[in-house]
Amino acid sequence: TRMNLGLTLKAPKGLLMVNISRQYSRRSIGFFVPSSPPLDPEKVKELQRFVTLSKRLLVMTGAGISTESGIPDYRSEKVGLYARTKQKPIQHGDFLRSAPIRQQYWARNFVGWPRFSSLQPNPAHWALSNWERLGKLYWLVTQNVDALHTKAGSQRLTELHGCMHRVLCLDCGAQIPRGVLQERFEALNPTWSAEAHGLAPDGDVFLTEEQVQSFQVPSCAQCGGPLKPDVVFFGDTVNPDRVDFVRRRVKEADSLLVVGSSLQVYSGYRFILTAREKQLPIAILNIGPTRSDDLACLKLDSPCGELLPLIDPH
Protein backbone atom coordinates (compact mmCIF):
# COMPACT_ATOMS: atom_id res chain seq x y z
CA THR A 1 0.00 0.00 0.00
CA ARG A 2 1.36 3.41 -0.87
CA MET A 3 0.41 6.77 0.57
CA ASN A 4 1.48 10.12 -0.79
CA LEU A 5 2.37 12.31 2.19
CA GLY A 6 4.05 14.88 -0.02
CA LEU A 7 2.71 18.41 -0.16
CA THR A 8 3.08 21.31 -2.55
CA LEU A 9 2.42 24.74 -1.09
CA LYS A 10 1.26 27.70 -3.13
CA ALA A 11 1.12 31.30 -1.97
CA PRO A 12 -1.98 33.31 -2.90
CA LYS A 13 -0.31 34.52 -6.09
CA GLY A 14 0.62 30.98 -7.00
CA LEU A 15 4.32 31.77 -7.23
CA LEU A 16 5.65 29.93 -4.22
CA MET A 17 6.37 26.29 -4.92
CA VAL A 18 7.82 24.31 -2.04
CA ASN A 19 7.83 20.78 -3.29
CA ILE A 20 8.37 18.12 -0.70
CA SER A 21 6.46 15.45 -2.56
CA ARG A 22 7.72 12.00 -1.79
CA GLN A 23 6.02 8.65 -1.95
CA TYR A 24 5.82 7.08 1.48
CA SER A 25 4.70 3.50 1.80
CA ARG A 26 3.80 1.94 5.12
CA ARG A 27 7.11 0.18 4.87
CA SER A 28 9.07 3.42 4.41
CA ILE A 29 7.43 4.97 7.50
CA GLY A 30 8.59 1.82 9.30
CA PHE A 31 12.08 2.56 8.00
CA PHE A 32 12.66 4.72 11.08
CA VAL A 33 11.79 1.88 13.47
CA PRO A 34 14.85 -0.18 14.50
CA SER A 35 14.72 -3.95 14.00
CA SER A 36 13.64 -5.90 17.06
CA PRO A 37 12.99 -9.50 18.10
CA PRO A 38 9.45 -10.93 17.85
CA LEU A 39 7.07 -10.08 20.69
CA ASP A 40 7.67 -12.38 23.65
CA PRO A 41 4.28 -13.36 25.14
CA GLU A 42 5.86 -13.78 28.58
CA LYS A 43 7.27 -10.24 28.46
CA VAL A 44 3.85 -8.92 27.41
CA LYS A 45 2.34 -10.67 30.44
CA GLU A 46 5.00 -9.11 32.69
CA LEU A 47 4.22 -5.62 31.37
CA GLN A 48 0.50 -6.31 31.82
CA ARG A 49 1.18 -7.28 35.43
CA PHE A 50 3.28 -4.12 35.93
CA VAL A 51 0.51 -1.88 34.58
CA THR A 52 -2.25 -3.71 36.43
CA LEU A 53 -0.46 -3.31 39.77
CA SER A 54 0.15 0.41 39.15
CA LYS A 55 -2.36 2.78 40.72
CA ARG A 56 -0.52 6.05 39.91
CA LEU A 57 1.46 5.25 36.78
CA LEU A 58 3.76 7.91 35.35
CA VAL A 59 4.84 7.38 31.73
CA MET A 60 7.81 9.12 30.13
CA THR A 61 8.11 8.98 26.34
CA GLY A 62 10.92 9.76 23.92
CA ALA A 63 11.55 9.83 20.18
CA GLY A 64 11.10 6.06 19.90
CA ILE A 65 7.34 6.37 20.33
CA SER A 66 7.07 8.60 17.25
CA THR A 67 9.18 6.60 14.80
CA GLU A 68 6.09 4.61 13.84
CA SER A 69 4.43 7.91 12.88
CA GLY A 70 7.22 8.59 10.37
CA ILE A 71 9.56 10.73 12.49
CA PRO A 72 13.13 9.45 12.90
CA ASP A 73 14.85 9.44 16.27
CA TYR A 74 18.44 10.55 16.80
CA ARG A 75 20.27 7.56 18.24
CA SER A 76 18.79 4.27 17.03
CA GLU A 77 21.27 1.89 15.43
CA LYS A 78 21.21 2.02 11.59
CA VAL A 79 17.98 4.06 11.30
CA GLY A 80 18.49 7.02 13.69
CA LEU A 81 19.41 10.44 12.32
CA TYR A 82 23.01 10.19 13.59
CA ALA A 83 23.46 6.77 11.98
CA ARG A 84 22.11 7.83 8.57
CA THR A 85 23.44 11.38 8.16
CA LYS A 86 26.11 13.80 9.34
CA GLN A 87 23.36 16.24 10.25
CA LYS A 88 23.51 17.55 13.80
CA PRO A 89 20.63 19.35 15.55
CA ILE A 90 20.76 23.11 16.03
CA GLN A 91 22.68 24.32 19.09
CA HIS A 92 20.99 26.85 21.38
CA GLY A 93 23.99 29.18 21.61
CA ASP A 94 24.48 29.24 17.83
CA PHE A 95 20.81 30.12 17.28
CA LEU A 96 20.97 33.04 19.74
CA ARG A 97 24.32 34.33 18.45
CA SER A 98 23.96 34.21 14.69
CA ALA A 99 21.34 35.73 12.36
CA PRO A 100 22.62 33.58 9.42
CA ILE A 101 22.15 30.43 11.52
CA ARG A 102 18.60 31.55 12.40
CA GLN A 103 17.97 32.16 8.69
CA GLN A 104 19.27 28.68 7.82
CA TYR A 105 17.22 27.10 10.60
CA TRP A 106 13.95 28.80 9.62
CA ALA A 107 14.40 28.12 5.88
CA ARG A 108 14.79 24.41 6.60
CA ASN A 109 11.98 24.41 9.13
CA PHE A 110 9.70 26.20 6.66
CA VAL A 111 10.23 23.51 4.05
CA GLY A 112 9.82 20.65 6.53
CA TRP A 113 6.78 22.06 8.32
CA PRO A 114 3.96 20.88 6.00
CA ARG A 115 4.96 17.23 6.37
CA PHE A 116 6.06 17.44 10.01
CA SER A 117 2.85 19.17 11.10
CA SER A 118 0.66 16.73 9.17
CA LEU A 119 2.02 13.58 10.83
CA GLN A 120 -0.46 11.70 12.99
CA PRO A 121 -0.39 9.74 16.26
CA ASN A 122 0.23 5.99 16.01
CA PRO A 123 -1.33 3.21 18.13
CA ALA A 124 1.12 3.85 20.99
CA HIS A 125 0.00 7.50 21.37
CA TRP A 126 -3.65 6.44 21.20
CA ALA A 127 -3.10 3.69 23.78
CA LEU A 128 -1.61 6.13 26.32
CA SER A 129 -4.43 8.61 25.70
CA ASN A 130 -6.89 5.78 26.35
CA TRP A 131 -5.10 4.82 29.57
CA GLU A 132 -5.52 8.41 30.76
CA ARG A 133 -9.21 8.45 29.83
CA LEU A 134 -9.76 5.27 31.82
CA GLY A 135 -7.90 6.60 34.86
CA LYS A 136 -4.85 4.33 34.57
CA LEU A 137 -2.26 6.95 33.58
CA TYR A 138 -1.49 9.43 36.38
CA TRP A 139 0.83 11.69 34.36
CA LEU A 140 2.56 11.68 30.98
CA VAL A 141 5.93 13.36 30.41
CA THR A 142 7.25 13.54 26.86
CA GLN A 143 10.68 14.57 25.64
CA ASN A 144 9.22 14.96 22.13
CA VAL A 145 8.33 18.26 20.45
CA ASP A 146 6.00 16.81 17.78
CA ALA A 147 2.60 17.39 19.50
CA LEU A 148 1.51 13.81 18.70
CA HIS A 149 0.37 13.14 22.28
CA THR A 150 -1.78 16.29 22.15
CA LYS A 151 -3.21 15.21 18.79
CA ALA A 152 -4.12 11.88 20.40
CA GLY A 153 -6.02 13.71 23.15
CA SER A 154 -3.62 13.42 26.11
CA GLN A 155 -4.24 16.17 28.68
CA ARG A 156 -2.37 15.10 31.82
CA LEU A 157 0.77 15.94 29.90
CA THR A 158 4.05 17.84 30.32
CA GLU A 159 6.05 18.58 27.17
CA LEU A 160 9.47 18.61 28.81
CA HIS A 161 11.26 20.11 25.80
CA GLY A 162 8.41 22.29 24.52
CA CYS A 163 6.52 21.97 21.24
CA MET A 164 7.33 22.85 17.62
CA HIS A 165 3.73 24.00 17.10
CA ARG A 166 4.42 27.17 19.15
CA VAL A 167 6.81 30.05 18.39
CA LEU A 168 8.02 32.71 20.81
CA CYS A 169 9.86 36.01 20.61
CA LEU A 170 13.27 35.96 22.30
CA ASP A 171 12.92 39.62 23.32
CA CYS A 172 9.34 40.16 24.53
CA GLY A 173 8.20 36.54 24.99
CA ALA A 174 5.10 36.88 22.77
CA GLN A 175 3.81 33.52 21.48
CA ILE A 176 2.15 32.68 18.17
CA PRO A 177 1.07 29.37 16.61
CA ARG A 178 3.63 27.92 14.21
CA GLY A 179 0.98 27.76 11.47
CA VAL A 180 0.56 31.55 11.61
CA LEU A 181 4.31 31.97 11.12
CA GLN A 182 4.15 29.69 8.07
CA GLU A 183 1.76 32.15 6.44
CA ARG A 184 4.14 35.02 7.19
CA PHE A 185 7.02 33.06 5.65
CA GLU A 186 4.97 32.52 2.48
CA ALA A 187 4.09 36.21 2.22
CA LEU A 188 7.74 37.26 2.63
CA ASN A 189 9.10 34.66 0.19
CA PRO A 190 6.61 34.52 -2.72
CA THR A 191 9.14 33.31 -5.32
CA TRP A 192 11.49 31.29 -3.11
CA SER A 193 11.59 27.56 -3.73
CA ALA A 194 13.50 24.60 -2.36
CA GLU A 195 13.14 20.85 -2.25
CA ALA A 196 13.40 19.04 1.06
CA HIS A 197 15.68 16.11 1.70
CA GLY A 198 15.03 13.99 4.78
CA LEU A 199 13.34 14.98 8.03
CA ALA A 200 14.64 15.28 11.60
CA PRO A 201 12.82 14.71 14.92
CA ASP A 202 12.31 18.47 15.27
CA GLY A 203 10.97 19.00 11.72
CA ASP A 204 14.34 20.10 10.36
CA VAL A 205 15.24 19.21 6.76
CA PHE A 206 18.45 19.52 4.78
CA LEU A 207 19.03 22.39 2.34
CA THR A 208 22.14 23.73 0.63
CA GLU A 209 23.67 27.09 1.59
CA GLU A 210 22.69 28.51 -1.81
CA GLN A 211 19.04 27.65 -1.21
CA VAL A 212 19.07 29.38 2.17
CA GLN A 213 20.74 32.68 1.32
CA SER A 214 17.74 34.45 -0.22
CA PHE A 215 15.20 33.26 2.38
CA GLN A 216 13.55 36.12 4.30
CA VAL A 217 12.82 35.59 8.02
CA PRO A 218 10.08 37.65 9.74
CA SER A 219 10.60 39.28 13.13
CA CYS A 220 8.19 39.49 16.06
CA ALA A 221 5.10 41.45 14.98
CA GLN A 222 4.91 43.10 18.41
CA CYS A 223 8.50 44.20 19.09
CA GLY A 224 10.64 43.28 16.08
CA GLY A 225 12.68 40.74 18.05
CA PRO A 226 13.98 37.39 16.74
CA LEU A 227 11.63 34.40 16.74
CA LYS A 228 12.40 30.90 18.03
CA PRO A 229 10.33 27.74 18.24
CA ASP A 230 9.11 27.10 21.78
CA VAL A 231 11.45 24.13 22.23
CA VAL A 232 14.59 23.39 24.19
CA PHE A 233 17.45 23.26 21.70
CA PHE A 234 20.53 21.14 22.37
CA GLY A 235 22.80 23.05 24.75
CA ASP A 236 19.90 24.80 26.46
CA THR A 237 18.35 23.80 29.79
CA VAL A 238 14.79 22.89 30.67
CA ASN A 239 12.85 25.55 32.59
CA PRO A 240 13.52 24.86 36.33
CA ASP A 241 9.83 25.27 37.21
CA ARG A 242 8.93 22.59 34.67
CA VAL A 243 11.61 20.28 36.10
CA ASP A 244 10.26 20.81 39.63
CA PHE A 245 6.69 20.18 38.43
CA VAL A 246 7.65 16.85 36.82
CA ARG A 247 9.75 15.84 39.81
CA ARG A 248 6.69 16.35 42.04
CA ARG A 249 4.60 14.18 39.70
CA VAL A 250 7.26 11.44 39.87
CA LYS A 251 7.25 11.58 43.67
CA GLU A 252 3.44 11.26 43.67
CA ALA A 253 3.54 8.25 41.32
CA ASP A 254 3.81 4.62 42.41
CA SER A 255 5.55 3.34 39.25
CA LEU A 256 7.34 4.64 36.16
CA LEU A 257 7.13 3.34 32.60
CA VAL A 258 9.64 4.61 30.01
CA VAL A 259 8.45 4.34 26.40
CA GLY A 260 10.76 4.88 23.43
CA SER A 261 13.71 6.62 25.08
CA SER A 262 17.37 5.65 25.43
CA LEU A 263 17.52 8.14 28.34
CA GLN A 264 20.87 9.43 27.08
CA VAL A 265 19.85 13.05 27.67
CA TYR A 266 20.08 14.10 31.31
CA SER A 267 16.87 16.18 31.17
CA GLY A 268 14.89 12.93 31.07
CA TYR A 269 17.33 10.66 32.90
CA ARG A 270 17.16 12.82 36.05
CA PHE A 271 13.56 11.65 36.65
CA ILE A 272 14.70 8.03 36.58
CA LEU A 273 17.08 8.95 39.39
CA THR A 274 14.20 10.57 41.28
CA ALA A 275 12.11 7.42 40.82
CA ARG A 276 15.05 5.32 42.01
CA GLU A 277 15.37 7.47 45.15
CA LYS A 278 11.66 6.88 45.82
CA GLN A 279 12.21 3.14 45.15
CA LEU A 280 9.53 3.12 42.47
CA PRO A 281 9.41 0.10 40.16
CA ILE A 282 10.66 1.09 36.70
CA ALA A 283 9.78 -0.63 33.41
CA ILE A 284 11.39 0.31 30.09
CA LEU A 285 9.97 -0.27 26.62
CA ASN A 286 12.65 0.69 24.09
CA ILE A 287 14.33 -1.03 21.16
CA GLY A 288 18.01 -1.14 22.09
CA PRO A 289 19.88 -0.47 25.33
CA THR A 290 19.15 2.52 27.56
CA ARG A 291 21.08 4.39 30.21
CA SER A 292 18.87 2.89 32.91
CA ASP A 293 18.52 -0.78 32.00
CA ASP A 294 20.25 -1.73 35.26
CA LEU A 295 17.64 0.21 37.27
CA ALA A 296 14.61 -1.39 35.59
CA CYS A 297 12.69 -4.37 36.93
CA LEU A 298 11.43 -5.01 33.37
CA LYS A 299 12.99 -4.23 29.97
CA LEU A 300 11.20 -4.86 26.66
CA ASP A 301 12.67 -4.49 23.16
CA SER A 302 9.55 -4.06 21.02
CA PRO A 303 7.93 -1.40 18.81
CA CYS A 304 5.79 0.79 21.07
CA GLY A 305 2.82 0.77 18.68
CA GLU A 306 2.73 -3.02 18.60
CA LEU A 307 3.01 -3.64 22.33
CA LEU A 308 1.09 -0.88 24.16
CA PRO A 309 -2.30 -1.59 22.49
CA LEU A 310 -2.03 -5.19 23.78
CA ILE A 311 -2.07 -4.00 27.40
CA ASP A 312 -5.44 -3.84 29.15
CA PRO A 313 -5.44 -0.70 31.34
CA HIS A 314 -8.22 -1.94 33.64
UniProtKB/TrEMBL annotation:
EC number of the protein: 2.3.1.-, 2.4.2.-, 2.3.1.286
Binding-site residues for NAD(+), renumbered to this chain: 62-82, 143-146, 260-262, 286-288, 304
Catalytic residues, chain numbering: 161 (proton acceptor)
Cofactor(s) listed in the protein's UniProt record: Zn(2+)
Molecular function via GO: histone deacetylase activity; lipoamidase activity; NAD+ binding; NAD+ poly-ADP-ribosyltransferase activity; NAD-dependent protein biotinidase activity; NAD-dependent protein lipoamidase activity; NAD-dependent protein lysine deacetylase activity; zinc ion binding
GO terms, biological process: DNA damage response; glutamine metabolic process; negative regulation of fatty acid oxidation; negative regulation of insulin secretion; negative regulation of pyruvate decarboxylation to acetyl-CoA; positive regulation of lipid biosynthetic process; regulation of glutamine family amino acid metabolic process; tricarboxylic acid metabolic process
Primary location group: mitochondrion
Catalytic activity annotation: N(6)-[(R)-lipoyl]-L-lysyl-[protein] + NAD(+) + H2O = 2''-O-lipoyl-ADP-D-ribose + nicotinamide + L-lysyl-[protein]; N(6)-acetyl-L-lysyl-[protein] + NAD(+) + H2O = 2''-O-acetyl-ADP-D-ribose + nicotinamide + L-lysyl-[protein]; L-cysteinyl-[protein] + NAD(+) = S-(ADP-D-ribosyl)-L-cysteinyl-[protein] + nicotinamide + H(+); N(6)-biotinyl-L-lysyl-[protein] + NAD(+) + H2O = 2''-O-biotinyl-ADP-D-ribose + nicotinamide + L-lysyl-[protein]
Keywords of this entry: Metal-binding, Mitochondrion, NAD, Transferase, Transit peptide, Zinc
Localisation: Mitochondrion matrix
Ranges where the Deacetylase sirtuin-type domain occurs: 37-314
Pfam family, one: SIR2
Cofactor remark: Binds 1 zinc ion per subunit.
GO cellular component term, pick one: mitochondrial matrix
CDD domains per UniProt: SIRT4
Chain sites annotated for binding Zn(2+): 169, 172, 220, 223
Mitochondrion as UniProt keyword: yes
NCBIfam families hit by this protein: PRK05333.1
Remarks, miscellaneous: According to some authors, ADP-ribosyltransferase activity of sirtuins may be an inefficient side reaction of the deacetylase activity and may not be physiologically relevant.
Subunit details: Interacts with GLUD1, IDE and SLC25A5. Interacts with DLAT and PDHX.
Family, similarity comment: Belongs to the sirtuin family. Class II subfamily.
Functional summary from the UniProt entry: Acts as NAD-dependent protein lipoamidase, biotinylase, deacetylase and ADP-ribosyl transferase. Catalyzes more efficiently removal of lipoyl- and biotinyl- than acetyl-lysine modifications. Inhibits the pyruvate dehydrogenase complex (PDH) activity via the enzymatic hydrolysis of the lipoamide cofactor from the E2 component, DLAT, in a phosphorylation-independent manner. Catalyzes the transfer of ADP-ribosyl groups onto target proteins, including mitochondrial GLUD1, inhibiting GLUD1 enzyme activity.
Protein name: NAD-dependent protein lipoamidase sirtuin-4, mitochondrial
